[in-house]
Amino acid sequence: METSPVPKPHLPPHRTPLLVPASRKSKAPTTPPRPGEAERGARPPDRPGRMAPSTFPALLLAAAAAVMLLLLPPGAEAVWLELPPSGTKCVSEEIQPNVVVLADYAIMYESHPTSHPTVAVKVTSPYGNTVHHNENATTGQFAFTTTEAGNYLACFWIDSAEKGSGTSLNLDWKIGIAAKDWDTIAKKEKIEGVELELRKLEAAVESIHHNLLYLKAREAEMRTVSEKTNSRVAWFSILSLGVCIVVSVLQLWHLQGFFRKKKLI
């Protein structure tokens, strides 16, 4: 049996790749960047609407001033009083101790041009002490520093023979930092501008701090009174329950003896 030889596959001859020098390598054509691509990686410049860092202290100062004004209780109050021919008109204000009070009062003749009466003024403390008294006055002023906490009462009445149909009185009541003359303080200490505003804010902070301490003391006082009241109510309830039990036992003992005398039991 004869076998035919298997033909070998035809292989291409081996070719060595040509080495091209580095200097002869072709360079890819460079295209200029587009207008939007060059600026994409760079840091954008500051926009006109962006807030500069130097404006933050001023904004913080303004915010602090607004908060202080909101938290600060009203220190100045103008009151218009219509005084009757007979009788007394009074105004009161709850003030803490160690607070400066300044008030100006004046009769307004424009509302009653035909009569020109005079008034009497009396200001009393919460415990009834007189801190200001004036008679036959058309204008006046009183100033004092409180030593007691509570309602200070200012009463006005017409004390002249010419009463007419009454009169009107303007009362400008100032307490705390509102009673300070900041213009005089600024001239005396030679301060102005931001320093003066900071001084006002400092006074406002001190006033708020004293107000919070006063409220804290009042809260502690009310809590003590509430605890004492609850304790007294609890003991009164226990005593009432004990009395009821004793009375019930006595009633039972009395009824038992009564029924035994009657030979019902």
From TrEMBL:
InterPro entries: Emp24-like, GOLD_dom
Domain of life, per lineage: Eukaryota
Principal location class: membrane
Keyword Nucleus: no
Domain GOLD stretches: 88-200
Chain segments carrying region Disordered: 1-51
Biased composition (Pro residues): 1-10
Keyword terms: Membrane, Signal, Transmembrane, Transmembrane helix
TM region positions: 56-76, 233-253
Location of this chain's protein in the cell: Membrane
Topological type in the membrane: Single-pass type I membrane protein
Comp. bias intervals (Basic and acidic residues): 36-49
Recorded GO CC terms: membrane
This protein's record includes keyword Glycoprotein: no
Homology family: Belongs to the EMP24/GP25L family.
Protein name: GOLD domain-containing protein
Protein species of origin: Urochloa decumbens
